[in-house]
Amino acid sequence: MSSSSADAVARRIVDVSADCGISLVASLPDGWITSLITQYASDARFRHVSVNREESAIGLCSGAFFSGIGTFALMGASGFLTCIYAITKINYTYQIPLLIGITLRGRPGDRAKFHQSNGLYLESVIQAIDIPFVTIEKADDIPRLATAYQHSRTLSRPVVVGFTREVLRGEA
Amino acid sequence: MNFEACFRLLADRLKDEIIVTSAGNSSELWWDITGETERVFYLEASMSLASVFAAGIALGTKRTVVAFNGDGAFCMNPGMLIVERQLALPNLKHFVIANGVYGSTNDLGHPFAELMDYAAVAKAAGVERVYEFSTLEGLGQGLDDMIKVPGHAFAVLHVDPLGRHLPSPPLDGPEVKFRFGRYLERTGGAPIFDAPLHPK
């Protein structure tokens, strides 16, 4: 991986986000998305908010729906798993759309042992609560983020986009 | 101070603000007193996210947004204050109802109010305008300063447990969403829904 290729991918994700109407990004980092978060934070097209915990991103972005602001809650896989209650209670009960971006930790190739539980259970949990799940596995998939954003609004429920390690490193 | 009297005073004085209530007593009591269905978002089962949800609303309006949390919710997520402090929204006003019980679960007591100084926590988080109200007279005198003066503000309402169970607002989630959202659109807010109710 070169930092320039990872930065180029991050820039493309940021550009697609802006073009589809996202202007508020609430995040808590994962090691795979530090470049992406840095780019959102330094781009004047966005208001970036560093949240104290991932559930706060769900709360803030859900409230911002009523400001007419396009939002993106960005977090790691483990953080996402802490948000199940907030998503099912707030977004499902009130039918509030929300685009959530996560890292697909624990897939083959991720050598972090403490993330292997995500490889085992993350996608099963996503399926269990019926959130539409869009994977972004190569650079050509990045426009799917805009499609997922619009689908969330059409569905009036959250949609999750999952980024692989390879795409975020600019290797796919 | 008496919880119901406190909320009656607030409901009487907060006529123009956008209101976000949280799980349990704040939603039930506001509904019981006002019966309002438009400018209030009854965020039941909020589990400590009422004030950050309100912050999201406040991002897009110049109107004042008032959020209520119970102290059980506050202790679940005191880090909410760090997010609020970072946003520093001049139109966000956050009340914590300090009654030492979980009002939504039969007033089951918790020890947090005795162990922790909520106002001091807010000050330590960098919130500059922090209030504590223990009497109706004090609340009546200090409320305008908290609400009308621009600037993020946080207040602790020291009240007694409600001591009775009230029904939840009889509104399903989507009804809350559409009543609230259409109200904001109709009263000068930004478009929220993709399809306007009355296309021009």
How are the elements arranged and paired?
The complex is a heterodimer of chains A (172) and B (200).
Chain A: H1 3-19, E1 22-27, H2 34-42, E2 47-50, H3 54-64, E3 70-75, H4 77-81, H5 84-94, E4 98-103, H6 116-128, E5 133-136, H7 144-155, E6 158-163, H8 165-168
Parallel strand pairs in A: 1-2, 1-3, 3-4, 4-6, 5-6
Helix pairs in contact in A: 1-2, 3-5
Chain B: H1 3-13, E1 18-21, H2 25-34, E2 40-42, H3 50-58, E3 65-70, H4 71-76, H5 80-87, E4 92-98, E5 101-102, E6 108-109, H6 112-115, H7 118-124, E7 129-133, H8 136-148, E8 153-158, H9 173-186
Parallel strand pairs in B: 1-2, 1-3, 3-4, 4-8, 7-8
Antiparallel strand pairs in B: 5-6
Largest interface: A-B, 33 and 39 residues
Question: Low-confidence segments of chain A, ≥5 residues, pLDDT <50?
Answer: none
- CATH topology of chain B, which one? Rossmann fold
- Mean pLDDT of chain B equals 95
Question: How large is the count of helical segments of chain A?
Answer: 8
Query: Which percent range fits the helix content of chain A?
Result: 40-55%
CATH fold type of chain A: Rossmann fold
Please give the number of β-strands of chain A.
6
Count up the helices of chain B: 9
Instruction: Encode the helix/strand succession of chain B as letters.
Output: HEHEHEHHEEEHHEHEH
User: What is the distance, rounded to the nearest whole angstrom, between the alpha carbons of the first and last residues of chain B?
Assistant: 50 Å
User: End-to-end span of chain A in angstroms?
Assistant: 11 Å
CATH level-four homologous superfamily name of chain A: Thiamin diphosphate (ThDP)-binding fold, Pyr/PP domains
CATH architecture of chain A: 3-Layer(aba) Sandwich
Assign the structural class of chain A, choosing from mainly alpha, mainly beta, alpha/beta, alpha+beta, or little secondary structure.
alpha/beta
Q: State the low-pLDDT regions of chain B, or none.
A: none
Order of helices and strands of chain A: HEHEHEHHEHEHEH
Number of domains of chain A: 1
> Which structural class should the secondary elements of chain B be placed in?
alpha/beta
CATH class of chain A: Alpha Beta
